[in-house]
Specification:
Blueprint: E1 2-7, E2 11-18, E3 21-29, H1 36-43, E4 53-58, H2 64-73, E5 80-81, E6 91-92, H3 102-115, E7 119-124, E8 127-133, E9 138-146, H4 148-157, H5 178-205, E10 210-214, H6 218-222, E11 230-231, H7 235-249
Parallel strand pairs: 1-4, 4-5, 6-9, 7-10, 10-11
Antiparallel strand pairs: 1-2, 2-3, 7-8, 8-9
Helix pairs in contact: 1-2, 3-7
Length: about 250
Amino acid sequence: MLLAIDIGNTSTKVGIFDGERLSSKFSIPTDPNSSKDGLRSVVGNNIDKSISEAIVCSVVPETEAAMREFLIDVGVDNPVFVTNDFDFRLKINYQPLSAIGTDRLVNSFAAVAKHGAPCIVCSFGTATTIDVVDRSRDLLGGVIAPGMTTMAKALHLHTAKLPEIEIEKPKRAIGNTTVSSIRSGIFYGHIAMAEGLIQRIQNEIGDTPKVIATGGFASLIAENTALIDIVDEDLLLYGLRLLYERVRLA
């Protein structure tokens, strides 16, 4: 059994693979101050005692030491932590390579492996990232923008009277209360941003790649735009499993 762990800025997603099958998954809040014992209390009850292999993708370096200790403590002798110099079977045109998040690399790798190239990979989470792989499997780069919850929090923190709102689809674009107006601006504004960026990217590369959405808001956004071709919420976990197979066979 393989444990695949995606440590994101807001949540940590855990997938348990039985061979190629994702047998179960769950999420916990990401805590930069987590400890081995703290992870055991929130993760331990959700995992099978037979797990002896693990691979981790993290964009929160402060969590990695505790996660490594936890994994070793539950019987994983040599947990694998994804780094930017892994072989993702892509030509990565990003400078410097160390600056791009491993989550973006794993998502791009998984999208090509699962859905083919060319592709545009949109991850809708705490941040919205859009990455572009052309027909030659060149990762050309992409876009980073605030995610919807980040936009809502920033608007609340940097204004005197505006409340922080929950993200959901408004009934109409024109809000007639402060809450509905903020919700409309963030929701429909984010969709308009994503659509505009996807169309600009398509024009720049002169192609019509598949557009793949992943991340916590992927389904909600895909339901409200015609530009998303595929929603793949487990894309990164799938990519981690594939990467682990390559590491094990190397």
